[in-house]
Design a protein that fits this description.
The complex is a heterodimer of chains A (301) and B (342). Chain A is mainly alpha-helical and 301 residues long. Chain A contains 14 helices and two strands. The radius of gyration of chain A is 25 Å and the shape is globular. Chain B is globular, with a radius of gyration of 27 Å. Chain B is built from 18 helices and no strands. Classes of the chains: A mainly alpha (301), B mainly alpha (342). The interface between A and B is large, with 126 and 129 residues.
C-alpha cells in the first residue's frame, strides 16, 4: 500500500525497548482481529464432541469434513440455495449499480448540462435526510418488490457517496481530451466510451468493490423484504441459524455422521465460512481499491 | 481531486452561465428582447446535451422512485395509514402520531438507550485508531507494519451477520472459548447474549473490531504526508522519539482528527441497525432497544397490525434530528478546516 512507502529512509538504528513493546502491542491487536476467524475455521472442521468438551481453541480436533458434507447435502437447511442467491444478487447488483452510477456521474459531471446541479442537490439532500425504513417499505412494496429479488438490486443501485466519488474522478480528467473529440464530431456517448471509460478503470474498480461488498453483506433489506425462505441470501439464513430453535425449518439438535458428531455450533461455523470466503478471496484486491476510495471520500485536511 | 459540492451555489444557479461553457454565437444576441433569448439559448443548450440527458434517465428514475418517493411517503406520519386504503384513502390525523410519541411509555428508555450507546461508541472507538496509527508510524520493519494494517482491516469487509455469529460462537455457553477460559479459572459460564448489562460492552467491542481499520487508513495516509524535513529539523534540535511523536506527528494530523471527530458527532444518531437486530432478543430490550429498533419492531415485527404511521412518525423525528446534526457538524468542519463532505 502506498501509505507505507513514504517511510523515511534513515540509517539503521539500534533496536530499542520501545520497538519491541510497540511491535508486541500491534502484533497482539492484529492477532485479536484475526483470531475469531481462525477459531471459526477450527470449529467448522472439528468433531462436535471436542467442541462440547471445550477442547477447541486454535486447531481443529479430530479433523473431519462431515459438517460441510451435511450442509451441502441437506436442502432443508437452505445454505446452498442461499449461497447461490447471494452470488446472483451480488453479480447482478454490482453490474447494474456500476453502470447506473457511472452514467449518472458522467452526465452530472458536465457543467453544460442544464439542470444537472439540481439533480445532484436532490441526491445529496436525500442522502443526508434519511426518510427511514418505513416510508421506503411503503414505496417498495407498492412497486411489487416484496418477495422479489430485484429488491437487492434496484434500490441500492446508486449510492450517493459513490456517485460523488465517481463524479470527482471524472471531473479530474482534463477537458481538452473531450473538446478535441467533439470537434471531430463525436457525440457524448462516443466520448464516454472512447475517452472517459478507458481512463476510469481505477474508479470503476473501486466502486465495483464497494457495491459488491455492500450487496453481499446486506442484511436488513432481505430481512424485511424477502420473507420467502427460497429467496433469502446467506446472511439471513445465517441469522436464522443463530436464532436456532425458534425456527421450524432449521430445528436441528445434533447428528452423528460417519462416526463424527455434528452439532449446531459446527453448522453455524461452516455456514459463516461460506459467507466469508468470497469476501476474503477478493480481499487483497479489495483492500487496495477500498483504501483509495476511502481516501478520495475522506475529507482533505 | 476534490469531492466538495457547492450546496449554497446550486439552488439559484440554473439561469446563470456556467464555467467552461463555449461562448454563445454572437448572431443570437443583438436586437432581441431579453427573456426569449434566454429561453432559446436554454433550449439550445438542452438540445446540445441530449445525449447527456439520455444517460441521466436511469439515474433520474432511480432518484425519483427510491430516493424522492420515500421522502414524500413520509406523509403517512400524518395519517392513520392502512395498506388497504393506500396513501390517497387513509384518514388524516394531523400531529396525533407525534403527540402519541411524546406520551409513549417507552420513550424515556428509548432515548436514553440511544444516547448512551452513541456516546459510549464515540468515546471508545474514536481514540483507538489514532493510538494504533501512531504506533504503526513508529514501526520500522515495513513488512510488519503492512501485515498488521492488512489484518486489522479484514473485519471491515465481513458482514455484521457473520461478526455477530462469530461472537456468539466465541461466547457460547456450550463450548465457546470465552466461557471455557472463565470455567478454567473457576468461574461459572456467562450467557452474554441474554444479559442486559453485557449488551453495551459487546456492541461497542464489535463496533471497534469492525470499524477501526477504516479510520487507521485515513490517519496513516495523513501521517505519510507530513513533510520529512520537519522530523529532520526536530532531530537536529535533539528531539527524541516521544518528542517527535507529540510535537510533529500529532500536530501534523490534528486537522484530520478534528474533522473526523466533528463528523462522528454528526453521525452519532446513526446506530448500526443490522448489528443490534442481530444481537438482541426480548431479554436485553432493557438496554438494547433504541429508537430505530423500536421503529423496526412497530412496522415489521409486531404481533398485531403493523402501525406504519406511528413508526414513520418516530422515524421522521429521528431523521430530522440526525439531519440537523449532520448539516451543523458539516458547517463546523468547514469553518474549522475549510473542508467538508458535501
Amino acid at each position: 500500500m502506498t501509505t507505507m512507502q513514504t517511510k523515511r529512509n534513515r540509517p539503521r538504528r539500534r533496536v530499542e525497548l520501545f520497538d519491541i513493546v510497540n511491535g508486541l502491542i500491534l502484533g497482539l491487536i492484529a492477532i485479536a482481529c484475526i483470531y475469531p476467524f481462525v477459531y471459526i475455521v477450527a470449529v467448522a472442521l472439528s468433531d462436535g464432541k471436542a467442541v462440547l468438551q471445550n477442547q477447541v481453541f486454535l486447531w481443529p480436533v479430530d479433523i473431519n469434513f462431515e459438517t460441510f458434507a451435511y450442509i451441502l447435502t441437506n436442502e432443508r437447511l437452505g445454505v446452498v440455495r442461499a449461497l447461490l442467491n447471494s452470488i446472483l444478487y451480488t453479480v447482478v447488483g454490482t453490474i447494474v449499480a456500476v453502470v447506473l452510477t457511472y452514467l449518472t456521474a458522467y452526465a452530472l459531471s458536465k457543467k453544460r448540462l442544464p439542470g444537472g446541479r439540481i439533480v445532484m442537490l436532490l441526491f445529496i439532500i436525500t442522502w443526508i435526510f434519511d426518510a427511514g425504513i418505513v416510508p421506503a417499505y411503503i414505496v417498495n412494496s407498492g412497486l411489487g418488490l416484496t418477495n422479489n429479488w430485484l429488491i437487492m438490486v434496484l434500490p441500492l443501485a446508486i449510492s450517493t457517496f459513490l456517485l460523488i466519488v465517481t463524479k470527482s474522478f471524472i471531473e479530474a480528467i482534463p477537458d481538452e481530451l473531450e473538446e478535441s473529440a467533439s470537434l471531430d464530431g463525436a457525440n457524448d456517448l462516443q466520448i464516454l466510451r472512447q475517452i472517459y471509460l478507458p481512463l476510469s478503470t481505477p474508479v470503476v474498480a473501486t466502486i465495483s468493490i464497494f457495491y459488491a461488498v455492500q450487496t453481499w453483506n446486506s442484511f436488513l433489506w432481505p430481512l424485511i423484504y424477502l420473507r420467502d425462505t427460497a429467496l433469502q441470501p446467506i446472511q439471513v439464513v445465517l441469522y436464522r441459524l443463530l436464532l436456532g430453535s425458534n425456527d421450524q425449518a432449521l430445528n436441528f439438535q445434533q447428528t452423528v455422521s460417519n462416526g463424527f458428531l455434528v452439532i449446531p455450533e459446527n453448522i453455524r461455523a461452516a455456514t459463516m465460512l461460506f459467507a466469508i470466503v468470497p469476501v476474503l478471496l477478493f480481499y487483497p484486491y479489495a483492500q487496495r481499491y477500498f483504501s483509495k476510495g476511502i481516501l478520495v471520500g475522506a475529507v482533505k485536511g | 481531486m476534490t469531492n466538495t459540492v457547492d450546496i449554497k451555489g446550486a439552488a439559484g444557479a440554473t439561469g446563470r452561465p456556467r464555467q467552461g461553457e463555449p461562448a454563445r454565437p454572437p448572431q443570437a444576441a443583438p436586437g432581441r428582447p431579453r427573456q426569449p433569448r434566454r429561453t432559446a439559448s436554454l433550449w439550445r443548450r438542452m438540445k446540445a446535451a441530449r445525449w447527456l440527458y439520455l444517460m441521466l434517465v436511469p439515474g433520474l428514475i432511480h432518484l425519483i422512485l427510491f430516493k424522492l418517493a420515500p421522502v414524500s411517503a413520509l406523509v403517512i406520519a400524518f395519517q392513520d395509514f392502512s395498506t388497504f386504503l393506500g396513501i390517497g384513502g387513509s384518514p388524516w390525523v394531523g400531529f396525533q402520531n407525534f403527540i402519541d410519541f411524546f406520551n409513549d411509555p417507552n420513550i424515556g428508555r428509548l432515548v436514553l438507550n440511544t444516547l448512551i450507546l452513541a456516546v459510549l461508541v464515540l468515546v471508545v472507538s474514536f481514540p483507538i485508531p489514532i493510538l494504533f496509527a501512531l504506533g504503526l508510524n513508529e514501526v520500522r520493519l515495513r513488512w510488519f507494519g503492512k501485515g498488521v494494517q492488512t489484518l486489522s482491516f479484514v473485519p471491515y469487509f465481513v458482514s455484521s451477520a457473520v461478526l455477530v455469529s462469530i461472537m456468539y460462537t466465541l461466547m457460547s455457553p456450550n463450548g465457546g472459548v470465552v466461557n471455557s477460559v472463565i470455567t478454567a479459572f473457576g468461574g461459572s459460564p456467562v450467557s452474554f447474549f441474554t444479559e442486559p448489562e453485557w449488551f453495551r460492552p459487546l456492541y461497542t467491542t464489535m463496533h471497534v473490531w469492525q470499524n477501526f481499520g477504516y479510520s487507521v487508513i485515513i490517519y496513516v495516509a495523513a501521517m505519510a504526508s507530513i513533510d520529512p524535513a520537519l522530523y529532520e529539523a526536530a532531530e537536529l534540535d535533539g528531539a527524541g522519539r516521544w518528542r517527535k511523536m507529540f510535537s510533529v506527528t500529532l500536530p501534523g494530523i490534528s486537522t484530520i482528527i478534528s474533522v473526523l471527530l466533528i463528523l462522528s458527532v454528526g453521525q452519532i444518531l446513526t446506530v448500526d441497525l443490522d448489528k443490534i437486530l442481530l444481537m438482541y432478543n426480548p431479554s436485553v430490550y432493557e438496554t438494547a432497544d433504541v429508537i430505530q429498533t423500536y421503529v423496526y419492531r412497530l412496522a415489521f415485527a409486531s404481533e398485531g397490525f403493523p402501525d406504519y404511521s406511528y413508526a414513520a412518525a418516530v422515524g421522521l423525528i429521528q431523521g430530522l434530528i440526525a439531519f440537523v446534526l449532520v448539516v451543523a457538524t458539516n458547517r463546523a468542519s468547514e469553518r474549522f478546516s475549510g473542508s467538508r463532505v458535501f
